[in-house]
Design brief:
By secondary structure, the chain is of the alpha+beta class. It has 5 helices and 8 strands. Strands 1, 2, 3, 4, 5, 6, 7 and 8 form an 8-stranded antiparallel beta sheet that branches. Helix 2 packs across helix 3. The longest helix has 26 residues. It is globular.
Length: about 200
């Protein structure tokens, strides 16, 4: 099954999963930062692999990307993309370092903090998916890349060369005391047959 074959009910089911995952992610980040966090309704869409770099608006924009493999009942790769302003603000809050600027002054501490946040948020999404679907989804140790948005999926796509589209969940987190929202993109790149297994689990195929 391909993404362009999905109907309204199937897309609505995936949006419900995205809502649950975003709620888990907001709770996890709220506990980490000790701030109240509200979430907008996540935007769910399927994006052609070659167009993923334009999700943030500019394929040449530097981003922070936390990637993990997923094992268990389905096989997939996940990539959590933080646009530059989000990556910068998250690390400033966690490290209490207002002079930390992405990507110019992103040293070992900043990269470690961003990787930990990405690992936590991606884990929140996977936990929500696992609970909702009744599936075992086990993440690998995360990898962090600081690269242009257009390059973040290159290595991932090589693992699943038959994949044509990526499930993108755009999440907008509004943190108490912050004027600008924190944006992130949770991307799921399923191996062959995994999308259909997910839809079967929510009884939509």
């Amino acid at each position: 099954m391909k993404a362009n074959e999905l109907g309204v009910l199937q897309l609505d089911g995936l949006r419900e999963v995205a809502n649950i995952g975003a709620g888990h992610a907001a709770t996890a980040l709220s506990q980490l930062t000790n701030r109240r966090i509200m979430i907008d309704v996540p935007q769910v869409q399927f994006v052609a692999v070659e167009d993923v770099g334009e999700l943030t608006g500019d394929a040449a924009e530097p981003v922070g990307a936390v990637a993990m493999q997923v094992f268990g009942d389905v096989k997939a790769r996940t990539v959590l993309i933080f646009p530059g302003p989000t990556a910068e603000r998250i690390t400033q809050i966690l490290l209490h370092a207002q002079d930390s600027h992405f990507p110019d002054t992103f040293g070992e501490m900043e990269q470690s903090a961003l990787k930990e946040v990405g690992n936590m948020l991606a884990g929140a999404y996977l936990t929500a998916l696992s609970d909702f679907l009744g599936m075992v989804l086990l993440p690998s140790v995360p990898d962090l890349a600081l690269d242009m948005a257009g390059a973040v999926l290159q290595a991932t796509h090589l693992d699943f060369a038959d994949a044509e589209e990526v499930l993108s969940i755009e999440t907008c987190l509004r943190m108490n005391g912050e004027a600008d929202p924190l944006r992130g993109y949770f991307l799921l790149l399923p191996a062959a047959g995994s999308l259909e297994r997910i839809l079967q689990a929510i009884r939509l195929v």
